[in-house]
Amino acid sequence: MKAYHLNSHAGAGRLARADVNKPEPASGEVRIRVEAASLNYRDLITLDRAGQNELNGRVPLSDGAGVVDAIGSDVVKWRPGDRVAASFFRDWISGPFKSSYVPSSLGGNATDGMLAEYVVLPANALVAVPQHLSSVEAATLPCAGVTAFHGLVVRGGMGKGDMLLVQGTGGVALFGLQFAAALGARAIVISSSDEKLARAKALGGSILINYRDTPDWDVDLMKATHGEGASHILELGGPGTYDRSLRSVASGGKIVQVGVLTGFGPKPDLSRLQWENADIIGVTVGSLDHFTAMNRFLTEHAIHPVIDRVFGFDEVPEAYAHLRSGAHFGKVVVRL
Ligand SMILES: NC(=O)c1ccc[n+]([C@@H]2O[C@H](COP(=O)([O-])OP(=O)(O)OC[C@H]3O[C@@H](n4cnc5c(N)ncnc54)[C@H](OP(=O)(O)O)[C@@H]3O)[C@@H](O)[C@H]2O)c1
Questions:
Q1: Does 116 share its domain with 244?
Q2: Closest ligand 1 atom to the C-alpha of 41?
Q3: Which end of the chain has fewer CB atoms surrounding its CB within 10 Å, N or C?
Q4: Same-domain status, 241 and 324
Q5: 52 or 108: whose pLDDT is higher?
């Protein structure tokens, strides 16, 4: 079968095409014929670290969906032909997060990801694909979708009358925007592009700010919300946005701390949290239970993920370059 491997010797792209044996499912495992895989910002960070030993030869990408192709003994949950997607953390099924789950993240340091024609995973690390979604759409869900749902809906309790701020128009941000619209919450979108803001308006964005033209976007946000601010903030920027997020949070609001788009390790002045009785919710993607709950929500609200562009299996380096360019609106997908 065909697969991609991270390989620091594969030139500037660091992605090597490989022909390898089709894996066989052992007891309790399922083999999936992957139909689509999607890229996340995390995959750019991983690619940039591909020179590190543990990543050499690793199959990249956490997110993929396809069809069950073979099952090992003792598998009763799935049958060949079932449409499934893999959960980001193979081992985080339910309950609170444990740091011991980290090595089981697909496409990370220690576990192969989804950019292969066939993958084998434990039967209990998969979710059924909602019927109204194609495999290309379902492949966008495991990281970006689950992160936004877990942070904003499960832990953030976002609902009718709330005001969400999303930063940019990438994968996580647009899932957040769609969830807000479905729940009857309003949304503020900041973006580098007026054209993307116009598209975000069509998805339910009601306050639109170009952060290139308006670097002090927190000031405009406060004016536009009559001094109230945002009840929920999807903090995606990190050091470059965190202080402005803190200045934008409403009384009793929640900052869902997710992103590193401007780097790692923000050192914000947290004093305003106390005066506003506001909270920070730290999120690393989510569990299989979060994924299952999100799929019910997607079905109930007939939500389709926003797909920016679908690349072929031969165009994987171009797909990475497209994500890195920041030109995308929503998700970048590879069809296998
Ligand atoms: N903690 C977790 O579990 C978790 C899970 C998923 C993602 N993440 C993180 O969340 C972030 C978003 O991930 P993603 O996969 O959705 O990324 P993505 O699809 O690549 O989105 C990138 C977009 O973010 C916007 N952006 C970039 N710099 C910005 C800035 N300074 N201010 C506001 N917006 C900015 C741009 O949108 P415009 O062109 O519209 O400006 C850009 O196109 C990343 O840092 C990722 O590592 C964390």
A1: no
A2: 15
A3: N
A4: no
A5: 108
